[in-house]
Amino acid sequence: MHDRHNIPVDDLAKAIFTVNRHAKTAPQPQHLYTIKKEAINQLLQEQRAEKVGLHFSNNPKLSNQHSTLLVKIGNYFFHMPPTRNDFQELDHLGHLDENYRNPQTKMSLSHAKKIIYRYLDWSPPSQREQTKTKSYTSRYFTPSSLGKMKWPPANSSRY
Fold first, then answer.
1. Nearest Cα residue to 3 out of 119, 122, 113, 124
2. 10 closest CA partner among 75, 101, 105
3. Is-contact 69 54, C-beta < 8 A?
4. Which one of 32, 69, 81, 106 is least enclosed by Cβ atoms within 10 Å?
5. Distance (Å, rounded) from C-alpha 43 to C-alpha 78?
6. 90-147: per-residue pLDDT in tens?
7. How many structural domains comprise the chain?
8. CA dihedral (125, 109, 78, 30) positive or negative
């Protein structure tokens, strides 16, 4: 039994806003952007969100201008990558309006994630999965022993 339809759109919009705000400053934002994207796609599928149009991105990749899809959920607006069909079906709105801001929201990241997980019928990833990081390995890297040596040496047999 899914209770995703029982979650008000405004609560979902606030949760997505909170996740998006934290993702922008997170050291590893991939998971936060994934749940944002999945939640928005699900809302679009259920027609509880609407595609407004396309904007030029403020952060061009590799100096190439590209567009982002503007989606309206409740009183909030979000950007996400557009599909090929979006370019054919939606109007291009030009540059982003720098003066517009989403309403301020006070919601903890953990509460926002719980709302989105419940909506998506997902379970949160285990702590081990979240902290899995690649260790740096290189053929040219030699680990330093500085700071690992005891100084002065305790068993000095020079005398």
1. 119
2. 75
3. yes
4. 106
5. 12
6. 988 888 777 788 898 899 999 999 999 999 998 877 655 555 555 555 566 555 665 5
7. 1
8. negative
